[in-house]
Amino acid sequence: MIVELVFTPSPERLSARPAHRALLGRLHLEGRLAAAGPWADDSGALLVFDVERAELDAIIGADPYYRTPGVEVAAVREWSPVIGPAR
């Protein structure tokens, strides 16, 4: 599953980011997050999760970053990679 975020220059976003990144680190160690990071211009971010939609919805619901002013979930998409680790 792919999550695309759009950012605005809200200070709330920047103060919420460390806790969000700590959670992402844990999800990565658990194998549920393959990759994540902001666009080079910091206008948003892309996150690649290795979970089903129901679990992704739970992850998004549990992380207040996705509801912080300045952060908008622009898209959630299923992805079928041709190259990469198999599920």
Rg of Cα set: 13 Å
Silhouette? globular
| Percentage of residues assigned to helices | 25-40%
CATH-scheme architecture: 2-Layer Sandwich
The ordered string of helix (H) and strand (E) elements is: EHEEHE
The major sheet is characterized as: 4 strands, antiparallel
Give the class-level CATH name.
Alpha Beta
% residues in beta strands = 25-35%
Stretches where pLDDT is under 50 for at least 5 consecutive residues are none
Number of helices: 2
CATH topology: Alpha-Beta Plaits
CATH homology superfamily: Dimeric alpha+beta barrel
Number of strands: 4
Pfam families: YCII
Protein name: YciI family protein
Organism: Sphaerisporangium dianthi
InterPro entries: Dimeric_a/b-barrel, YCII
Can you describe this structure?
The protein has 87 residues and is of the alpha+beta class. It has one domain: Dimeric alpha+beta barrel (Alpha-Beta Plaits). It has two helices and four strands. The protein has a four-stranded antiparallel sheet with strand order 2-3-1-4, covered by helices on one side. A hairpin with a 5-residue loop joins β2 and β3. The longest helix is centred in the N-terminal third of the chain and has 19 residues. It starts with a strand and ends in a 10-residue tail after the last strand. The mean pLDDT is 93. It comes from Sphaerisporangium dianthi. Belongs to the YciI family.
